[in-house]
Amino acid sequence: MEEKRILLTKEEIDRKVKELAGEISRKYAGEEVLVIGVLKGAWIFMADLVRAMDIDVVCDFVRVASYGSGTETSGQIFLLYWPEIDFTGKKVLVVDDIADSGLTSVFLRKKFLEEGAVSVEFCVLLDKPSRRRTDFRPDYVGFTIPDHFVVGYGMDCNERYRSLPHVEVYED
């Protein structure tokens, strides 16, 4: 990437993560919630989010794939890792980096409910509603962004740029 086009600064992200953590902490105060991060893109966001929460949570991860090596979703969801947790009667908060087509989120909601979860909510750092191919709407949204492929703060292009402290538009 020659010229950077920063979409969200580290400071903007930090402020929003604290705001989301406060909202989620108030919602789940006194309750047990399982926070499930979607690998690989959400791990930095999830780590910052749970550390900013005022509640005790159980954390684990799922890993799904829909992008392959390109910048467009394939439309197919592949489950690569599923946690060894009994979800029966549990409240699940799925943390993801970005809500794009909505296909992954719909797939995960169905899977968690089939596994016995009583509720499944979604917290995403970024939402791209213009890309939606389902009626999915995240419960907690950091930022709504235009239709750009973005990298940084855990998000990548071919496994690169995850460690950037900000979010920027990826341009070849």
Task: Write a structural description.
The structure is a single chain. The protein has 172 residues and is an alpha/beta fold. The chain has a single domain, classed as 3-Layer(aba) Sandwich (Rossmann fold). The protein contains three helices and nine strands; from the N terminus they run E-H-E-H-E-E-E-H-E-E-E-E. The strands form two sheets. The chain has a six-stranded mixed β-sheet with strand order 4-3-2-5-6-7. The protein has a three-stranded antiparallel β-sheet with strand order 1-9-8. The protein is globular.
Read across the widest sheet, the strand sequence of neighbours is: 4-3-2-5-6-7
What would the principal axes of the Cα set say about the shape?
A: globular
Q: What is the helical fraction, as a range of percent?
A: 10-25%
Query: Domains counted in the coordinates: how many?
Result: 1
Coarse structural class? alpha/beta
The gyration radius over C-alpha positions equals 15 Å
CATH topology: Rossmann fold
Compact summary:
The protein is of the alpha/beta class and 172 residues long.
Keywords for this entry:
single chain; 172 residues; alpha/beta; Rossmann fold; six-stranded mixed beta sheet; three-stranded antiparallel beta sheet; 3 helices; 9 strands; 23% helix; globular
